[in-house]
Amino acid sequence: MATAGKGKRLVYVSEELLERVAKVTRDEGVSLSKLVEGALAETVKVNELGYASKDMAEFFNVLQTNRVLGGLFIPSGVLDFMVEKCTKKDSKELQTLWFESGMWSGKYLKEKFPNPTDSFGHFLKLTRWDLNEVDVKEGGDSVKVRCISTVMSIEGTMLLAKFIEGVVNGLGYRTEHVDCLKGMIILESKKL
């Protein structure tokens, strides 16, 4: 980085990236300076929220995927109420719906993302605010998913486990073992 004048800096960027950025400036009708300054300001905001700037595009992609898959953000209390009412009457049917929804999501993630397992981890972290910890690890021919929540009911935990099982199945893995306790899911799977 070299100084070009008081209060300004000169930053070296590859020609290839500059050509792609020039298209963005034309599409958005803004100057290069405004686009870069705006992008840098957003990067600072994301960092202040505790996220790495390199994850911004991935996060947006995951949120867009959630929208495409029909996902909604609803208050957890409302979801808990609905789950409690439905599990008393139609527990098996509800579990089947969550599994099928997960399977469809897994197939979609597999087609859309170069590393669908990582994307699924981001998906859970961004769309499930009731989860305190999410860990999705791929190792060789297996995937292990671990989710921890201090607020999730047993019914909600069981349904999320069915969704995760469906996703993993849709990604091409067979569930080997599931531990499901109130607020804790540990799922281990092997490649089909």
How can the largest sheet be summarized? 4 strands, antiparallel
Count of extended strands: 6
Report the C-alpha radius of gyration, rounded: 21 Å
- Mean pLDDT across the residues is 88
Q: Which sequence of SSEs, written as H and E, runs from N to C?
A: EEHHHHHEEHEE
Question: What percentage of residues falls in helices of 4 or more residues?
Answer: 55-70%
What's the end-to-end separation, in Å? Answer: 50 Å
CATH class of the largest domain: Alpha Beta
How many helices does DSSP assign? 6
- Structure class: alpha+beta
Show unreliable segments: none
Just name the CATH architecture of the largest domain.
Answer: 2-Layer Sandwich
The fold-level CATH name of the largest domain is Muramoyl-pentapeptide Carboxypeptidase, domain 2
User: What is the topology, as strand order, of the major beta sheet?
Assistant: 3-4-6-5
Number of domains: 2
* DSSP strand content: 15-25%
Shape: elongated
Name a few traits of the molecule.
6 helices; alpha+beta; Arc Repressor Mutant; 192 residues; Muramoyl-pentapeptide Carboxypeptidase, domain 2
In short:
The protein is α+β, with helices and mostly antiparallel strands and 192 residues long.
Summarize the helices and strands and which ones pair or pack.
Blueprint: E1 2-5, E2 8-10, H1 15-28, H2 32-48, H3 56-68, H4 76-112, H5 116-127, E3 133-139, E4 142-148, H6 154-170, E5 173-181, E6 184-191
Helix pairs in contact: 3-5, 4-5, 4-6
